[in-house]
Amino acid sequence: MVFRSFMDIALDEARAAAGRGEVPVGAVLVSPDGTVVARAGNRTRELNDPTAHAEILVIRAGCAAAGSERLPGHDLYVTLEPCPMCATALSAARIARLYYGAADPKSGGVAHGPRIFSHSQCHHVPEVYDGIDAQASEALLKDFFAARR
Ligand SMILES: [Zn+2]
């Protein structure tokens, strides 16, 4: 099977989030047969919900659609390295593969900080692929924060 990245859709969601005044992070959830199950950008401000990160929103939508608390075989694309909360949710949802864009040395929880997937308490570790379209993701974040200064 030919690898097809869904990061372009995640980047679209990140741009849409910036348009709403949200930190530009976007995520896409893809089912084992390659169908886009859910797509979302951050909505923490809109929903007054600190947990409304893009990853959490697609996991919630995917689980609701599947009628299950787990999403085995699913891939999750996100434009920025997941924070510790989202990394933990990814593990709990049994996501098979995580593809992310830019690294997040400040708030990331996969390659930085608590490195959630490297702990023995983490029962499910997804395959992780980083740096996917990282420059496009970084540029979005940089522009967003530069405009707010
Ligand atoms: Zn998060």
UniProtKB/TrEMBL annotation:
This protein's name: tRNA-specific adenosine deaminase
Cofactor-binding details, from the entry: Binds 1 zinc ion per subunit.
Q: Which CDD domains does the UniProt entry name for this protein?
A: nucleoside_deaminase
Among HAMAP family, the record links this protein to: tRNA_aden_deaminase (MF_00972)
Arranged from A to Z, the UniProt key words for this protein are: Hydrolase, Metal-binding, tRNA processing, Zinc
Q: Which residues are in the CMP/dCMP-type deaminase domain? A: 1-111
Please name the PANTHER family in this protein's record.
Answer: CYTOSINE DEAMINASE FAMILY MEMBER, TRNA-SPECIFIC ADENOSINE DEAMINASE
Catalytic-site annotation from UniProt: 55
Keyword Zinc attributed: yes
Organism superkingdom: Bacteria
Cofactor(s) listed:
Zn(2+)
| InterPro entries per UniProt | APOBEC/CMP_deaminase_Zn-bd, CMP_dCMP_dom, Cytidine_deaminase-like, tRNA_aden_deaminase
The family this protein is said to belong to: Belongs to the cytidine and deoxycytidylate deaminase family. ADAT2 subfamily.
